[in-house]
Every structure is written in structure tokens, then in C-alpha cells.
Amino acid sequence: MKTRNFVVLTISIAVVLGLLIYWREYATRDQVALYHVVLWQIGIWMPWVLGFKILEQIIGKISKTKFGILLLIGTCITWVGLHFGWFFFISSNFSPYLGLPGSRFGVYRYFFIFWTLIDIGLIWFIIDKLKSVKDEELPPPLLFELTRGNNKYFCEPSQIHWLAAENYYTKLSTTEGVFVMRKPLKSFHDLLPQDMFRRIHRSTIINVNYVSELERGNGQNLEVIMKDGTRRKVSRNFVKEITLFFKDRTY
């Protein structure tokens, strides 16, 4: 949900409330101007744009912290309290109903029902909309369709041990066995998560989570030993990169 759309929503709420209050207080229409009531309501509800931006930031981080839900609830309660304080400040100084019979601090008692219900409704609406947007931003899970004979297997990246180019084909070693696909290695390299897969040779990509050992030979020669016992040679162009990568991953 864009900020501009929420500004339009906030102004619409303020205008509608202003009209309803003006219509409800028919006895004071000769003493109060409609535009004054509407401007008063806009002044009360516009700070909700700031509340929207705050909740947008909180919801964006809710999945990254252990206490995200508590932080969100605390923020909502705090914001409603601050909004009520703002409501009293604006009404006590700028309400068109100041000093009129039956009003106190420029408001009537039933006003509180309006403000409380709308505050709760706006919180629910914003959280629901922003969560929907965050869910839509999540990419769909990546699955590879592998075939062996007449059978089809669906493989997640985490199930792949290593990939090796063989002419126009790519061999994949997975938890379900070895498969061959008529696709170039580059097509897999562009799709696989970069934090999980590393190229160690022009024709080889490995899943770093399945590496058991790095074995040095003579000179700059380096081999990766996978947990299934497979040995894959590291090209000289990648020796330094792979060595530093695993050094940073270990304690």
C-alpha cells in the first residue's frame, strides 16, 4: 500500500467524520461553520500518515527479530495513546465546538467512540495490507523437475550436492541420486542461491553445505571432498576464493 493512497484514505475519513459530526450537532449549525469542522478533523487524522510509516518499518522487520510481535503490539498501543493526546491538544485549542453547551475540551462524549473504533480499524487495516504486501514480495520456492526413466522428481536447491557440465548436458548429484539434464551449467548457476552454491571450476558448481574437506595437492592444486566421498578439482582461478570462503565460514 503506497503512502499516497493512505493519505487519500486519511483525508476521506476526516471529511466523512466532519460531515457526520456537523450533521449530528444540528443545534449548533448556526454557530459552527462546516469547513471549520472538516479542517479540525483533518488536523486530527493527518498524523496517522506518520503512524502508517512507523508500522510499515516495524512490519518490515517483524520476521527478523525474536520479539517482533511484542514490538508491533507495543508500537500500536503507544501510537493510539499518542493519537489521543494529539486529539486532546487539537480539540482543546482549535475545536469549533469549544465553549458550546454540552462540550468539554471542544468535544462531546460520543466523539470518543468514533476515535477509538477508527483507531483500532486503521491499525487492523494497515497491518493486514502491509503483511499482504510483504507476503507478495516473497519469491516462490525454487524447484527443479528431474527425470529418470518415466519417473519425475522435484528437487529443491538444498538437495543438490554438486553440478558438473558434460558437453550440452549438466549432471546433478542429489539426495535422490544422480540425474542428467539437457541444460547448460550456466542456466543453473543463474538460479541457484549464491550463499549456498559456489563455482569451483568452469564446469563445476558445489553446494558448500555438503563439503567435507579441502585437500591440497602439489603447488596450487586443491580438491574439494564432498560428504558422499566425491572429489571435485578446484580450478586455479578459484583456489583463493574458495579457500577464503571456507576460512570465513569456520571457527
TrEMBL record:
Keywords: Membrane, Transmembrane, Transmembrane helix. Residues 144-248 form the HTH LytTR-type domain. PROSITE patterns: HTH_LYTTR. GO terms for molecular function: DNA binding; phosphorelay response regulator activity. This is LytTR family transcriptional regulator. Pfam families: LytTR (PF04397). The chain crosses the membrane at residues 7-23, 35-55, 67-90, 110-127. It comes from Ulvibacterium marinum. PANTHER family: STAGE 0 SPORULATION PROTEIN A HOMOLOG, TRANSCRIPTIONAL REGULATOR-RELATED. It comes from the Bacteria.
